[in-house]
Specification:
alpha+beta; 5-stranded antiparallel beta sheet; globular; 5 strands
Length: 156
């Protein structure tokens, strides 16, 4: 459940160097930019790090139903201490690359999204009033699609 998370979306066109990177390198780069901004914005006592590659001599853990659980950590996730703090998913196509990120239960300053966007790129468009989706539509979609066994057990 990501209802108390902060989310962000990054779009990179095919002409972007980010589009050309392999998926793990893109994922890690995006979270490294987030780590840089967190170090500037968050208390210095927070220990920010990227999750390391899983040791090749061990079996990779199965993904957790809750991606912020310990067993849901994958290479490139942003950690604060030993807790997963940010993760995301990507879709790449002829249109470009879309990365949908989620920051776990974050209480972020209002300028955080703009600073993150500026850290990631030079051509930034910030939507100050994103389109609103009626709550009833959100709840129906959450129940009929994203809570279904088919959706929760799929692997991409």
């Amino acid at each position: 459940n990501h209802s108390s998370d902060s989310t962000f979306t990054l779009f990179a066109p095919q002409s972007s160097p980010l589009y050309q990177l392999p998926p793990r390198k893109r994922y890690t780069w995006i979270h490294d930019q987030l780590r840089i901004v967190c170090r500037q914005e968050q208390p210095p006592s927070n220990q920010w790090a990227l999750a390391s590659p899983f040791p090749s001599n061990l079996r990779e853990p199965k993904l957790a139903r809750n991606c912020f659980q310990q067993t849901g950590i994958v290479e490139g996730d942003l950690l604060c201490g030993e807790q997963k703090w940010a993760g995301g998913a990507q879709r790449k196509g002829s249109f470009g690359l879309v990365h949908q990120g989620s920051i776990s239960q974050a209480d972020l300053p209002s300028e955080f999204p703009t600073r993150l966007a500026q850290q990631m790129g030079s051509d930034v468009t910030v939507l100050s009033h994103p389109p609103q989706v009626p709550q009833a539509t959100v709840e129906q979609l959450a129940q009929t699609r994203y809570a279904s066994g088919e959706w929760l057990s799929r692997v991409s």
